[in-house]
Amino acid sequence: MLSADDCMTVPIQSLLAQAAASMCRLITFTRVGREVTESRLGRAAIQNEQRLCRAYEVALKLRSEEVVRFCNRFIAPGCPAAIARDNPFFVALVVDQCVRGAFHED
């Protein structure tokens, strides 16, 4: 099982992408229906994803300064450290959208 310690040496852009993907999977579980989420397999999958999300959250909070530097350099200058520290998944999802080209400069 992945731990926050395992995430400390992963390149920050990869960690952000992995965290965003994990959060998206967890959100997807809320849409698959009760019969799936209440099944033994569904509960196991959700618990596993929650553990992954927790590891990513801890690592991103510990590496929030690195997240800010990455955002300021590659995404948009002015990313507040408090947002990166307090809302790591929000930042990860925004970075993921930017990397995928969801935001375009006019």
SSE blueprint:
Blueprint: H1 12-29, H2 34-37, H3 40-62, H4 64-75, H5 81-86, H6 88-99
Helix pairs in contact: 1-3, 1-6, 4-6
Provide structural commentary.
The protein has 106 residues and is mainly alpha-helical. 71% of the residues lie in helices and 0% in strands. Helix 1 (12-29) crosses helix 6 (88-99). The longest helix is centred in the middle third of the chain and has 23 residues, at 40-62. The chain starts with 11 loop residues before the first helix and ends in a 7-residue tail after the last helix. The mean pLDDT is 89.
Short characterization:
With 106 residues, this protein is mostly helical. It has helices at 12-29, 34-37, 40-62, 64-75, 81-86, 88-99. The chain is built from 6 helices and no strands.
Structure class:
mainly alpha
Overall outline: elongated
- Percentage of residues in DSSP E strands: under 5%
Spell out the helices and strands N to C.
Answer: HHHHHH
Helix content: over 70%
**Uncertain segments of ≥5 residues (pLDDT<50)?**
none
**Biggest sheet features:** none
What is the residue-averaged pLDDT? 89
What is the tally of helical segments? 6
Calculate Rg over CA atoms.
Answer: 15 Å
Number of strands: 0
End-to-end Cα distance, whole Å, is 43 Å
